[in-house]
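Researcher: Re-running this chain for the archive, since the previous output was lost when a drive failed. Same request as before.
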Amino acid sequence: MPELPEVTTTVKGLQKVLPGLVFVDVWTDLAKKNQKIKQFEDTIKNEKFFIEFKKKIIGEKVIKIERKAKNILIHLSNDYTILIHLKMTGHLLFGEYKKVVSSKKKVLRITNWVPKNKGPLNDPYNRFIHVVFTFSNGKHLAFCDARKFGKVTLIPTHTLDTNPHLKDIGPEPLDKSFLFNNFKTRLFLKNKWYIKTVLMNQSIIAGIGNIYSDEMLWLSDINPESKPEKVPEKELLKLFNSMKEVLQKGIDFGGDSMSDYRNIDGLPGDFQNHHNVYKKKNTKCVKKNCGGVIIRKVINGRSAHFCNKHQKLF
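Model: Regenerated structure tokens:
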């Protein structure tokens, strides 16, 4: 699942190309009549919602793009905001696309969209197109999502702080105002949980998932099954600094593309080539003078990779 660095990379890309453009159309193959899954009722997966979504965005200008936790927010000129959550396998692509049209019982319909030109957008990981926005300059923003878990919805901009889609989100870990005492207070809200589980809880701290929690715990010498209440303050401070370092490193490398993630140009990030521990099961730990071995263990339903030697259990 794309985490804070991947979503930040996407938003940075969109900030360069979208502001000032006007929506002229939107297509999706996700909308269903009589959507019975409650969590999809107010998303474009509900055909009735999609019809209204389309009416409200066509003719509107993109004002700015920002990130909140793992959500991408595209603010429009009519005081509405398109909210996109990439979920497990989603990513956004920007470029020129063309329709693939088929005929069934003499009725023409769009069955797919493909890039007009050769290049990174043709990467096999970029072929699962389920939403396409068309802009006034002839370019397109395509939502690629192999597993179709992603979310696209529309909310009044003035409700961002209270909207159900954005409620219960913890503070941003890279904000300058997020200091060590804030970090410690947040962790102690679930001080008897495993520390990896706490780090990944979006209501505690925003944006951290499996990859980066493994990497920051490895860097700070803490076993993922440690309990926050038992970790000495010195080690918690090390974890706080490691969190900032690892997340910033993920952004600097353009995100992690060990799986599906690609940036808006269709290109992979590079963080997967700099892992110290994630997906390194049975390899020798690269920590200097350690000599341990990386093991994998399922903790509360999520995989954890850690060194069996230098990462201490508190």
